[in-house]
Amino acid sequence: MGLAFSMDGETFYKSYYKPVLLRALLTEACTMGDDSLMWEEGKLRFWYVTLDADKVPRIRYAELVPANIDTRQIWIDREITSGYLHSDPICGEYEVMKLYWYASKPGTFYVYIWDEGNQDWILWSYYSYTDVGKLAGVKITPHSRMIKVVFKPGSYPATVTAWVAAY
User: Fold this and answer.
1) CA separation for the pair 87, 6 (Å, rounded)
2) 81 neighbors 61 (Cβ within 8 angstroms)
3) Closest-CA residue to 50 (of 34, 38, 64)
4) What pLDDT score was predicted for residue 156?
5) Do 36 and 28 form a contact (C-beta atoms < 8 A)?
6) Which residue, among 87, 149, 147, 144, has the nearest Cα to 117 in the 3D structure?
7) What is the pLDDT along the chain (167 residues), one digit of tens a residue?
8) Are 36 and 54 in a shared domain?
9) Which of 14, 82, 160, 164 has its CA 20 to 30 A from that of 67?
C-alpha cells in the first residue's frame, strides 16, 4: 500500500519512500477498507477494517515506517492451478533489485525485461526453486525501466508469494 500526499487537496504527490504494508492476512488480501492514516513521530499509523474468519468486521492497526527501499508485492499466497503466473509490470529505474519468493511446490521463476527498442519482453534470467516452503531470493540488475516476473510450478495446484525490493 503506497502513500501520496497533498498540500491543497487537488494535487497529489507519491511519497519518495513509498511505504508498503506487507504480509497481509488472508482476509486482508480480499477485504480491506475504511482506512485512516496519521503521520506521527516518524511513523505512518494506519487503522483499517477487515473481516475475521467468521466474516465479522474488525479494526486492525499497523505502523508503516518509511525506508529508502521501494518494496513491491508481486503475489501474496496466489494459487495457480494451471499454466504460468504472470506479474504486472514492475516499473522504475534502480541500480539494484532483489527478488524474494517462496512457494508450496518446486518450480521456476523467470524474469523478463522490457526491450525499449523492439517494444517487447525478453527473457533476462530464470531461477529454479526446489527448497519448497523456504524463502529464496536473488539480486538482479536488469538495467531496464520495466521488468515482470513469471512463475511456473512443477505441479499443480501451487501457492506462491513473491516481492521485489529495489534500491
Assistant:
1) 30
2) no
3) 34
4) 97
5) no
6) 144
7) 566 667 778 877 665 455 455 555 555 556 677 778 887 877 778 888 888 778 888 888 887 766 667 778 888 889 999 999 999 888 877 778 899 999 999 999 999 998 888 999 999 999 999 999 899 999 988 777 789 999 999 999 999 999 888 87
8) yes
9) 160
Whether 41 and 87 map to the same domain: the answer is: no
* 38 within 8 A of 45, measured Cβ to Cβ: yes
Same domain, 96 and 153: yes
Among 147, 148, 167, smallest CA distance to 95 is for 167
Which residues, 6 or more positions from 60, have their beta carbon under 8 angstroms from its beta carbon? 28, 47, 48, 49, 50
- 118 alpha-carbon distance from chain centroid: 27
Enumerate residues 6+ apart whose C-beta is below 8 A from 41. Answer: none
Q: pTM for the whole thing?
A: 0.62
Q: Write phi, then psi, for 139 (nearest 5 degrees).
A: -90, 130
18 and 79 share one domain:
no
All cell numbers assigned to 61: 492497526
Number of folded domains that form the chain: 2
Sort strands 120-129 and 90-91 into parallel, antiparallel or unpaired. Answer: unpaired
